[in-house]
Design a protein that fits this description.
7-stranded parallel sheet; two-stranded parallel ribbon; 12 helices
Length: 324
């Protein structure tokens, strides 16, 4: 009888991790997951009888090292992290996003385990220096979260030179029912007609959560060159006006009001104010709704054999969920 492959997954109570786990939970794997000790059991109740749960906070490096000293895995899928814009100290960000990642990679290197790392297109900055941003685009440490992802990727590539079998997946902003991030906020602002738009159109590039989950499955299944980096987003970027009007039509039956379009200079002004106060969250918010951000995904679709729909169509699942 063939032994089950042993898989460790972090971040399963988050939006991406939960959707990925749903795809593989019925496979012939022995699945182990890490969750924070203070996490409500409601967040993992749907799968707690199908996986082995280990209560470990990624900032608790000592406990994580002890756990890893007692376990080996065939594959480690590292999705867990402290996301940007949260009120954590830089010390906690570094421990959770860099030091914990490093410990997981050391375990993978020691035991010849396949390591799949969920990074972020944020390594190119909120607004990349070139479009579409590719693996050759200059990295930008424009906030501390992005810095931690850049640092983790550097460590990963150094360990690849020592024999680590690792793949990097970088999701763009991810959308789908059940998440209260940027897509939900965008939908809510459009519903309340509180969103102001610049008078110049631009392009954005988001990721259907189902596409992101499938990317992790493909990275597990396909023999890829160690150290490969993949930007994961829908097949093509979408014009911001197009997605805004699609949302408005779904909710109100008409395009977004022209009275909500204002001069680009206002966005630049408020972005500069946010920079003066060093408010990383508000800097990113003004940038994301006034400037283009999209990515080169050609090698992702080729190597991972992905399939994607159209953003404006798929995004309606978020709108319908919001309306309920």
């Amino acid at each position: 009888m063939e032994l089950k492959k042993k898989v460790l997954i972090t971040g399963v109570t988050g939006f991406i991790g939960r959707n990925f786990l749903k795809l593989i939970i019925n496979r012939n794997y022995e699945i182990h997951v890490l969750v924070r000790p203070d996490t409500s059991s409601k967040r993992y109740a749907e799968f707690e009888n199908s996986v082995t749960i280990h209560e470990i906070d990624l900032t608790d490096i000592k406990k994580l090292k002890l756990f890893l000293s007692k376990h080996t895995f065939n594959t480690i899928v590292h999705i867990g992290a402290l996301r940007g814009g949260r009120k954590f100290s830089k010390e906690d960000y570094y421990k959770a996003n860099v030091e914990a990642t490093e410990q997981l990679m050391y375990n993978a290197l020691e035991h010849q385990t396949k390591f799949i790392f969920c990074s972020s297109v944020g390594v190119f900055g909120a607004i990349p220096k070139e479009l579409p941003a590719s693996n050759l685009t200059e990295k930008q440490e424009d906030n501390y979260y992005h810095y931690t992802k850049i640092k983790s990727e550097q460590i990963l590539q150094n360990l690849v030179m020592q024999g680590l079998n690792a793949i990097v997946l970088r999701p763009a902003i991810t959308y789908g029912p059940g998440d209260y991030g940027f897509p939900y906020t965008l939908t809510k602002l459009i519903d309340k007609k509180l969103l102001f738009l610049p008078d110049k159109n631009f392009k954005i590039h988001m990721t259907n959560v189902n596409l992101m989950a499938e990317s992790f499955v493909k990275a597990m299944d396909i023999d890829l060159r160690s150290g490969s980096e993949y930007n994961i987003a829908d097949r093509k970027p979408v014009e911001f006006y197009e997605i805004v009007n699609a949302i408005s039509k779904r909710i109100h039956g008409s395009d977004y009001p022209e009275s909500r379009y204002i001069k680009q200079e206002y966005f630049t002004f408020f972005e500069n104010v946010a920079r003066f106060f060093k408010n990383e969250l508000w800097i990113a918010r003004f940038e994301l709704i006034s400037k283009s951000w999209y990515f080169d995904v050609e090698n992702s679709y080729k190597d991972l054999k992905l399939d994607s729909g159209k953003t404006t169509n798929d995004f309606m699942s978020v709108v319908d969920w919001y309306k309920k």
